[in-house]
Amino acid sequence: MSASSLPKVDQFIAGQRIQPVSAGPDTAGKTHSVINPATSESIGQVELDSIRSAEQAVQAAALAFPAWSATPVGDRCQFLFKYKQVLETHFEELAGMIVREHGKTMTEARGDVRRGIDCVEFACAAPTLTMGKTLPQIAVSTSFCRTEDKSGVGIDSTVDRVPLGVCLGITPFNFPVMVPLWMWPMAIACGNTFVLKPSEKVPLSAVREVELAHEAGLPPGVLNLVTGGPAVVDYLCKHDDVRAVSFVGSTKVAQHVYTTATNAGKRAQCMGGAKNYMVIMPDANQDAVIEGVVGSAFGNSGQRCLAGSVAIAVGNAADWFVPRMKEAVTKIKVDAGDTPGVGMGPVIDPASRDRITGFIDSGVKDGAELVLDGRACPMPSRGCFIGPTIFDRCRPGMRIIDEEIFGPVLSIMREETLDAALANMNRSRYGNMGVIFTSSGYNARRFRTLAQVGMVGINVGVPAPMAVFPFAGWKQSFFGDLHANGEDAVKFYTESKVVVQRWM
Ligand code: NAD
Predict the structure, then answer these.
(1) How much distance in Å is there from the Cα of 228 to the middle of ligand 1?
(2) Cβ 454 under 6 angstroms from ligand 1
(3) How many Å apart are CA 450 and CA 422, to the nearest integer?
(4) What is the spatial distance between Cα 44 and Cα 437, in angstroms, rounded to a whole number?
(5) Nearest in space to 456 (alpha carbons), one of 465, 466, 448
(6) Given 77, 305, 377, 384, which residue is catalytic?
(7) Cα–Cα dist 180/196, whole Å
(8) Using an 8 Å Cβ cutoff, are 326 and 390 in contact?
(9) Is residue 172 in contact with ligand 1, taking CB distance under 6 Å?
């Protein structure tokens, strides 16, 4: 089927799975072709400029808010308990959809769904998490006190956590099921209603995720999904009825969304891009290093905000680290995500593949030593494949060191000391994650103290916080105050209201 004859990807508005309202005469009516990156075959068309659908989604969410926010929190969580079960029932179906539209291996796709379900489970704790605080008898109401006993005439104070209203979520391509689940389950558990705008590159599993929520009994309008591109994002971020914006994506867009939303008076949390360093100390457990660094640099084809992109080998660690990495990475089988024995799938689209190839070209031009060339890896000729690449003897100032690649390229640097490695890492404009491999508690402690990042791994290649912990980086990797997940999410999706009361 030709791309243009494919049906448009549905929206989910007011409980109905519907086609987007085609863009009006005031817009160009552009579309984006969703592809299976393993075959380059088109599998859907996304309406990019459907402002009218975006408006309908916000209206539906605003209409649903009074009843949903008045629903007891325990009842709201009953829906989430059911939804968890529905996700378990449809676990393999969702993972298969991720493989098809994103290109992950089946194992990685299952991880995407599992970590998303963790967030639903965490949101089930909303009755405890959203409890307020009370301080009785903060003062005595002496004017109404007729007895010596003042205990019955005191003034009490309470802080309640109350929902905001309509919240908005804008998500990237690299975790199609999990990142939306970072946002909307906790938002609605707190009593808000929600509009989700998933990545135009991977909208199909998000539509199914939202559809399953309705099969689990979510009332219409509480959760809505609208597809689209930048024009839809900008419209939603400025909408009068939207109170809060959660964004995950690249730094440039994160900064733009943060500025747009906060200028319009919204609260915003915007997770951006990353350039993550892993420090390999000579005393590290070598097997743990190789397993951890391979998984971090090449898992999800390097398309993770927690991908280890630069490894700094300290002292003589490079002597064993570089040859052992080459040996391990050469064995990774590059193929479609559902192929038996596959270790790495394709990258998301031809533009990404070309960008990554451009980075490899630049590394060679800048004088880095090409240990393994992903351009020459055995891989399918169809689809958006690029093999794992390793550079050694990289230096600051090279593009492969200074910029986010978001692909399967590991750049190795060599330094004499831990402090020199830390200095290199901390000069990055990003600060998402930093990792150290060592058997020394002193080194580990020095690293965790001095690393200017939001997430630290000690002998762990991908230190992804579980849903009960906050998730976000520092510096250009994050714009906002309250991080995703954990108690930060509860605070982000609620407002505090203080009550001071006395009874005569
Ligand atoms: P992206 O910034 O291109 O897109 C993210 C979202 O923003 C999409 O929904 C997209 O439609 C929208 N968008 C794109 N351009 C826009 C514009 N000009 N104006 C308004 N909206 C726009 O990101 P991506 O390529 O989908 O995802 C990869 C990026 O996400 C990487 O940089 C990665 O590091 C980052 N990421 C960060 C985290 C984190 O927690 N820090 C997690 C996952 C991914």
Answers:
(1) 13
(2) no
(3) 7
(4) 43
(5) 448
(6) 305
(7) 7
(8) yes
(9) yes
- 441-450 and 418-426 helices, crossing angle to 10°: 20
* 183 C-beta closer than 6 A to ligand 1: no
Helix, strand and coil percent figures for the chain, each rounded to 5: 40, 25, 35
Q: Determine whether 305 is an active site residue.
A: yes
Between CA 449 and CA 443 the distance in angstroms is 10
In the chain, the amino acid numbered 454 is G
| Adjacency order of strands within the sheet including 369-372 | 369-372, 389-392, 409-415, 308-314, 276-280, 433-437, 455-458
φ, ψ (nearest 5 deg) of residue 6 = -70, 150
Beta carbon of 305 within 6 Å of any ligand 1 atom: yes
Coil, strand or helix at 385: coil
Q: How far apart are CA 488 and CA 486, in angstroms?
A: 5
Rounded CA-CA distance 268/272 in Å is: 13
Domains, the chain, in order of start with CATH, read 10-129+162-272+477-496 (3.40.605.10), 276-469+471-475 (3.40.309.10)
Residue 122 to residue 129: CA distance in whole angstroms: 9
Q: pTM (2 decimals)?
A: 0.97
3-state DSSP assignment of residue 306: coil
449 pLDDT above the threshold of 90: yes
**Spatial contact of 188 and 174, defined as CB atoms under 8 Å apart:** no
3-state secondary structure of 460: coil
Q: How far apart are CA 278 and CA 281, in angstroms?
A: 10
The whole-angstrom separation of Cα 453 and Cα 306 is 11
Could you read off the pLDDT of 343-379 as tens digits, one per residue? 999 999 999 999 999 999 999 999 999 999 999 999 9
For residue 146, the 8-state DSSP code is -
Structure-token match 């200074």, residue found: 402
Residues in the chain: 504
Q: Which of 237, 250, 428, 475 to probe ligand 1 with, by most ligand atoms within 8 A of CB?
A: 250
Confidence label for 499 from pLDDT (cuts 50, 70 and 90): very high
